[in-house]
Please model this.
Amino acid sequence: MGKDNEEIKAWEINGLYNKNGKYNYAEYIKCLEKIGLGKEKVKMDQMIFIDYIIGNTDRHLDNFGVIRNAQNLNCIKITPIFDFGNSLHHNTDMLDINYKEDINSVLFNKTHKENLRNIREYGWLDFNKLRDIPELVHDKLNEINNIAEERKGMIAGLLEHRIGMFEKSFAKK
Model:
């Protein structure tokens, strides 16, 4: 981030620039436009998409925001995506992992599928690389000794399923 920059949390942005009191995707994008970061909307869309694929249950207004210059207070960019600790069914027993159900969200809507509906354009997404994610994640999980092989397979299967669900819903558009 650099010594001259600081992070401003999304809840602060929303409080400063959203005077109607509504909290949703469209209103947050309007806040970004007011501070000159409207073109950064794609970063928000990417965050929502990644959270959908990995089933992040903890994306809230305190773990994303913007970077601004601490000297002149100009907003520079969206914060890099961080805080994925509550993902990939991190606290779910393998027998309880249900691929078919949507995963709850605390972001703009109650579920990840609802959050995806906010995204209108996917020109930034390479579908061919998307299909490689389950295998890449499985390979990375193989580097961790204390995760059961069966769980690694379940996580890769979850990613494959969610990517497939996304591709089916995308094809309908």
